[in-house]
Amino acid sequence: MQVNTMKNPEALGKAAGQAAAALIQETIRRKGGANIILATGTSQFETLKELVKADIEWGKVNMFHLDEYIGLSDSHPASFRKYLQERFLSKVPPLRNAFLVNGETDPAAECRRLGELISHHPIDVALVGIGENGHLAFNDPPADFGTKQPYLVVDLDAACRRQQLNEGWFPTIGDVPIQAISMSVYQIMLSKHIICSVPGERKAEAVRNSLEQEVSNLYPASVLQRHADCRLYLDEASAGKLRAKV
Q1: Residue 47: inside a domain, yes or no?
Q2: To pair with 202 at 20 to 30 A between CA atoms, which of 9, 41, 181, 235?
Q3: What's 87's domain CATH number?
């Protein structure tokens, strides 16, 4: 894993977004198109801002995203479909395909639909983050490292739900859904390149566990240690608890 520490979230986002853009551009030059995964949440604000500035032939790009709450309307402020529409899709030319997760339909059928689609679109570049509880996508600890299903229905633990509340997406903890459709750890790890953006002091413990603990499903993002090309972007706050400064 390549670890890059920037001064602040803005510098982190710029570096991560530029790195992702360069990989997408190179993939398009080499293959004629690219398949990507985008993450959502506050950790991705600056990275996506930078990515939309890039000179990319978006009409040659197929996009998947990591997760969506079950039962949440795409008009809800916390909807990840809404997030991507407002912060990405509305700001770039039309993509070849944007395969969004629909949390308002039968979850098992939606997992099957997305699994079939992604099986025909091997991922070139994945943008991900790490949750306060160490989750990767919505794979909360103890994450399922064994399943090879591309998407699965997951239960959201208390720490994950508190994070969503504290970030301002929901008015009360009772409003935070208890389940979501999430891309699996296995599927994320199939990506050729991974760009992981993790700003903020509240992520420092999760960053330390992801980098300094042995790979374990109790620290889901620790699995990124095993990826052949994962580039982790931190700021001074999120890197603050690492034993060795990077």
Answers
A1: yes
A2: 181
A3: 3.40.50.1360
Contact by Cβ (8 Å): 48, 87: yes
- CA atoms of 189 and 181, how far apart (whole Å): 17
Angle at 32 between CA 21 and CA 111, to 5 degrees: 75
Threshold 0.85, pTM exceeds: yes
> What is the rounded distance in angstroms from the CA atom of residue 162 to the CA atom of residue 102?
23
Pull the structure tokens for residue 231.
Answer: 């580039």
Residue type at 160? C
The whole-angstrom distance between residue 12's C-alpha and the CA centroid of its chain comes to 15
pLDDT in tens, 106-115: 999 999 999 9
Of 50, 134, 43, nearest to 88 by C-alpha is 50
Which domain range does residue 162 map to? 2-201+219-235
Residues contacting residue 106 through CB under 8 Å, at least 6 positions apart: none
Under a CB-based contact definition with an 8 Å cutoff, are residues 149 and 133 in contact?
no
